[in-house]
Amino acid sequence: MNLFIESIEGGMYIAGIGSDKATSFLKDSYRNSPSFQSITDIREQVSGQHFDKIFLKQNTPYDEMCGSAVEDDKLMIELEWR
Q1: DSSP 36
Q2: Which of 1, 16, 18, 32 has the fewest CB atoms inside 10 Å of its own CB, making it the most exposed?
C-alpha cells in the first residue's frame, strides 16, 4: 500500500491510502476533519504503519487560475519518510 498526500488550498493537506491512487482517505483524529494542517500531522496520524511509497501531489493556485483540468499536470514527487 502507498500513502498519497495532496496539498490543497490554504496550505492544508489531504491524505489517502491505496495502491495506484488513494482509495480510502484519512481523517485528522485531533480536529475530526478530512484535512491536515501539515505533513507532520499526517506523519503522526500514520505512525507505526508501513507504506511501500509515499507521494506528495503539489497543487498550486496557478493551476486553478489557468483552468488546468488535467490531473497529470500536477507535480507529484516521492517523499523520503524516515
Answers
A1: B
A2: 32
Using a cut of 0.90, tell me whether the model's pTM lies above it.
no
Q: Are strands 54-58 and 2-8 parallel, antiparallel or unpaired?
A: parallel
Distance from the first to the final alpha carbon of the chain:
17
User: What is the chain's pLDDT, residue by residue, as a tens digit (82 residues)?
Assistant: 999 999 987 789 999 999 999 999 999 888 888 999 999 999 999 999 999 999 999 876 666 666 666 555 568 899 988 7
Dihedral (CA of 7, 75, 57, 24) sign: positive
Find out whether 75 and 58 touch, Cβ atoms under 8 Å.
yes
